[in-house]
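=== RUN LOG ===
request id: a7f3
mode: sequence -> structure
chains: 1
length: 177
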Amino acid sequence: MKKVFVLSLLLIGGCSSMIGYNFTAGSKESVAKKIVYNYDEFEREGWLETEMYRGSSAQPGTNYKYRAYYTKNSELSFIQIYAKTFNSDWCFINRISEFNGNVYNFHEISRDVSSSGSVSVVESFALDVTKSQLEQLAQNNTKFKAIGQKCDSTFEIDKNVSSAFLDAVNADNKNRR
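=== RESULT ===
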């Protein structure tokens, strides 16, 4: 089953540009070029976000991106790391810890389980990140441990993604309606 899982990750990797995934961050500049701001004219609020990047291909595989929410007054409301885990076993994530000891609020977003022939679990979750934590994440690549029922795994946030996103958050937001 693990071979099937790894093969499916490779297939997703081949289609990465079509579905908004970028498995390697590359330089800070290349990350910055793909940060977008999406504004909802009806709600008068917006999201600043990066592409999705691979944090780990080990079981469970983990991809992540940053998102910042801006209120109707174009004020930063909160920053989060959104992540998705892909697993071919009965593994469910219920908390995250950082190797440096920082604490992040964990929000389970969704959990999709399929067991037709083989098990497939896809989970989406978010971690609240303060601006000072984002500044720390921008200094070094940072390892996280996903802890759950029947499994633990590690994934890494690339400092270039964190640094480019920090610059985007700190940029003049006059164009953010």
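=== NOTES ===
The mean pLDDT is 82.
The first strand starts at residue 21 and ends at 22.
=== END ===
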